[in-house]
């Protein structure tokens, strides 16, 4: 039995196929180079933007950030009372951080610094010599919390220090209960003219 070998392609056909394969590979390589070159400006732009953002975060001062925050409120047509409230609260915070903690940059503020500020406001008298009430401290804390959340939205900081502190609470005011004799005197004082009865006799 005679076996017949499959016919081998001619040298010319082999060369043609090899040339076609090289052409295909060269075209693929050119497309890849083109895609990389087109992506480079976009990548460089992102890298430059990230670098600028990193520098801005590192150099943002409390003084400058507070000024920008107040301008943002003015641009948003906030009331003058609201702007003054933020100005007072944040000015107090900035002074405390600079004088008591040696902090001038926004990115340096952490949760322990905020807690120390709360304690400072409770112990240190205000400008009029009186200790601040818990309600006043909470009001100032609300301003500072809004400020740091604004910094997060602006991507000046990545996380607010208020995310890791216990926010000041204001207790319910105690109701003073009148003694029986005080209550009786109040009733007597409120007795209308011409009234008849024991209370009217006492009021006479």
Protein structure class: mainly alpha
Poorly predicted ranges: none
How much of the residues is beta strand, in percent? Answer: under 5%
By CATH reckoning, the class of the domain at 57-154 would read Mainly Alpha
Major sheet: size, sense and barrel closure? none
Number of strands: 0
Number of helices: 7
CATH-assigned fold name of the domain at 57-154: DNA polymerase, domain 1
CATH 4th-level superfamily of the domain at 57-154: Tyrosine recombinase, N-terminal domain
Molecular structure report:
The structure is a single chain. By secondary structure, this protein is mainly alpha-helical. Among the domains are: 57-154, Tyrosine recombinase, N-terminal domain (DNA polymerase, domain 1); 174-203, no CATH class. It is built from seven helices and no strands. Helix 2 packs antiparallel against helix 3 and helix 3 packs across helix 5 (134-153). The longest helix has 49 residues, at 11-59. The mean pLDDT is 80.
Short description:
The chain is mostly helical. 65% of the residues lie in helices and 0% in strands.
């Amino acid at each position: 039995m005679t076996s017949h070998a499959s016919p081998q392609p001619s040298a010319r056909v082999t060369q043609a196929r090899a040339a076609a394969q090289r052409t295909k590979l060269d075209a693929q390589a050119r497309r890849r180079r083109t895609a990389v070159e087109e992506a480079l400006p976009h990548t460089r732009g992102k890298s430059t933007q990230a670098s600028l953002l990193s520098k801005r975060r590192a150099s943002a001062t409390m003084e400058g950030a507070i000024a920008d925050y107040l301008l943002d409120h003015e641009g948003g047509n906030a009331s003058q009372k609201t702007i003054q409230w933020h100005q007072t609260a944040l000015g107090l915070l900035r002074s405390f951080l600079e004088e008591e903690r040696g902090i001038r940059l926004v990115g340096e503020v952490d949760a322990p610094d905020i807690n120390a500020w709360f304690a400072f406001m409770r112990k240190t008298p205000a400008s009029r010599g009186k200790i601040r009430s818990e309600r006043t401290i909470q009001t100032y804390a609300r301003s500072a919390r809004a400020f740091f959340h604004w910094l997060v939205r602006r991507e000046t900081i990545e996380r607010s220090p208020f995310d890791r502190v216990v926010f000041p609470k204001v207790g319910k005011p105690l109701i003073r209960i009148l003694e029986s004799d005080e209550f009786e005197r109040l009733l007597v004082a409120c007795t209308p003219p011409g009234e008849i009865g024991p209370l009217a006799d006492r009021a006479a």
